[in-house]
Design a protein that fits this description.
Length: 295
């Protein structure tokens, strides 16, 4: 990447951080994708022609479709920035490859499997052992609130308050949102707090910091095994998927679900509609005006 390109990419990343609230991980991904793209053009990336961008498709032929799509998206955003800031008069990004790929459906657990995980966790928690009490609180918040693993382990000690049905979390892009806290989760957390030092900064402390995402992953898999479920099928993110799919099949509005999950784009949320097809067919057959008309 030329020094001029590097300076423009840095300006672009500053804009993404300031105006789009992009996280450090997102900015690093944009930077890496633009550097890789710059390797495929003969001159300046910022001055690349449509023909040069079209040739990137051939150069990227061996890459996964998701990687090509991500790099193309980064370039489109970059060239849009150049045009908006008057640094380029034309936008050549229409020539970029647009791979067709199907987004994989999320792995989910059915409601019976979730019930088995809760039964096993509740049985262990009844012993009063601190780790078992903690694990039940983790499970209640993962499945009951749809939190990401990083959001859950980073919760402050006082984030779940008595009588408060929501808590504020800081998610991707440093954006805040409200998520629901069930009475079950509130009770589980209250019991767990009896084991947490009052001086702790974190709801789920571990040493001098909070529980790590890796440790949370291990805990969730162990709880799955306790319930007789293959651990390979379960992770914190699978429980988040279960939260979403079960809410949607229960009648939740897609826009509400988008807000609860913290998705910037509703297209991300729409992946969960695959589980809802049977309910929609039943709804049409039962509620549509034509369903009650005689032939």
């Amino acid at each position: 990447m030329t020094p001029d390109d590097r300076a423009l990419v840095d300006r672009f990343l500053d804009m993404m951080a300031a105006e789009a609230g992009a996280s450090r991980h997102t900015l690093a991904a944009y930077s890496n994708d633009l550097e890789r793209a710059a390797e495929g053009v003969s001159g300046s990336l910022a001055g690349a022609t449509p023909d040069e961008l079209a040739r990137l498709g051939t150069q990227w032929a061996e890459l996964a479709s998701s990687t090509v799509a991500r790099r193309s998206a980064a370039l489109r955003r970059f060239f849009g920035f150049l045009v908006d800031d008057g640094l380029r008069s034309d936008d050549p990004s229409a020539a970029l490859p647009r791979p067709k790929f199907e987004r994989p459906l999320p792995r989910i657990l059915d409601e019976g499997e979730i019930a088995r995980m809760f039964e096993a966790a509740e049985d262990r928690s009844a012993s009063g052992e601190a780790a078992a009490v903690r694990n039940l609180a983790l499970l209640e918040l993962l499945y009951g609130s749809g939190l990401r693993a990083s959001e859950l382990v980073g919760l402050p000690r006082g984030s779940v308050r008595s009588g408060q049905p929501f808590l504020m979390v800081r998610g991707k892009g440093d954006k805040e949102r409200l998520v629901p806290v069930s009475s079950r989760a509130e009770a589980a957390v209250a019991k767990w707090l009896e084991h947490v030092a009052g001086s702790s900064l974190w709801l789920f402390p571990s040493g001098k910091k909070h529980l790590s995402r890796v440790r949370l992953f291990q805990i969730v898999r162990a709880m799955a095994a306790d319930a007789g479920i293959s651990p390979e099928r379960v992770s914190p993110h699978v429980l988040r998927h279960a939260f979403a799919t079960h809410l949607l099949s229960g009648g939740a509005d897609l826009r509400v679900l988008q807000s609860l999950l913290g998705h910037a784009d509703i297209a991300t949320t729409q992946i969960y509609t695959h589980v809802d097809s049977a309910r929609l067919v039943e709804l049409v057959n039962a509620r549509h005006p034509l369903a009650t008309r005689g032939r």
